[in-house]
Amino acid sequence: MPTPGKTPYDAYKKTEINTANQGTLIVMMYDGAIKFLNIARDHMASPKTYDVANTNIIKAQDIITELLLSLNLDEKNEIAHNLFSLYMYFKKRLLEANIKKDPAIIDEVVRYLKELREAWSKISATESKTDKTSIEQKGSFNIEG
Known about the structure:
- This protein is about 75% helix and about 0% strand.
- The protein is mainly alpha-helical.
- Helix 4 (about 80-100) packs antiparallel against helix 5 (about 105-135).
- The longest helix has about 30 residues, at about 105-135.
- The radius of gyration is 17 Å and the shape is globular.
- The N and C termini lie far apart (about 45 Å).
């Protein structure tokens, strides 16, 4: 039986994360949050599995916290401040969903996360194309918003 962190899939994921540009990492974080929220929603139907729902909501909240911490709020950056407000709203709504065990709230947050994921995916794809076409002009990808 393979030990945790030692499977070929784990090695692949580690390499994928270590070699991804910042935009791709953000997309991966959205994917993780969406995945955990879908699991949580599926386990809200029965009180016997509320613990699974709770655990997965907390995992999604942790990802959203990481997204919050990655924002550059030092400068007058309207996008970053708007994202900050959205992330705080998501955290509040997920707390409500967890307390009420309301899958409709989860669906609302997932819908917004999917929209943001799509936008970051487009940004990341643009960054990847730039990386491939002009290595000399490669700059850092800034997550200001």
